[in-house]
Amino acid sequence: MAIVKLPDSDVFTRLVTERQSVRAFLQEPVPQSLLHQILMSARQAPSGANLQPGTFLCIEGQARRRLSSDLIEACRNGIKEVEDYGYFPDPMPMSLRRRQAASAQALYGALGIGREDRSGRDVQFERNFEFFDAPVALVVTINREFGSGGYLDLGMAIYGLMLAAQSHGLSTCAIGALATFPNLVRRSLDLDAHCAIVCGLALGYADDAAPVNKTKTMRCALQDYFRVIA
Ligand SMILES: Cc1cc2nc3c(=O)[nH]c(=O)nc-3n(C[C@H](O)[C@H](O)[C@H](O)COP(=O)(O)O)c2cc1C
Predict the structure, then answer these.
(1) I need a surface site. Which of 37, 60, 116, 215 has the fewest CB within 10 A?
(2) In sequence order, what DSSP letters do the residues of 102-136 get, joined into one string?
């Protein structure tokens, strides 16, 4: 097959449009040098006053097994914690609730899990806490003293990481579910009280045959988020 060299702008467009959250991975390890390269790309993100907030913790071995089992146990026992930062609007306006429902439908639809299938949804939810068995499990933290601006900066670094991974044929999924148990995560990983838990990140080579990776989400129309004021 002839290799067609795309102009750089097309390469970027392809990178952003082909990236999707992946929730099933091949058990193929990611070389440490490649992970380092991806993290260096993530760190190229701009940040206010170049403060470069946030830390990416790679969780392995016994620490990873313990964290996953602690999280699953807490989830099964119905433990509730106050998150370190607010994520969703509360109450969620109807227009956003529709988007939330559509993304849930895309995920559970791909898995054949019906609307009433509570236990099917619980099983999939617990997969978050296992980092979807990705070869690389990251926990993203930020110093608690940062306000919203720090989270804004860190979000850019996270997206940079996702795109850098994508450019190397790797896939990712952010795991906000981890942020619902901040005290447990800190305890399990022996982290300082100043560490706010932002999210987890699963990273690895996508298992393209897995039904869950057929999840496809839509984006709202340009006029819903862009307008000119003159
Ligand atoms: C900060 C953040 C947290 C997320 N948390 C989760 C999560 O806990 N579990 C999950 O399955 N997906 C999670 N996602 C993935 C979103 O559901 C996904 O990005 C969204 O539906 C758009 O789909 P796409 O990434 O495939 O384009 C998260 C995404 C972001 C950016």
Answers:
(1) 116
(2) HHHHHHHHHHT--TT-HHHHHHHHHHHHTGGG-SE
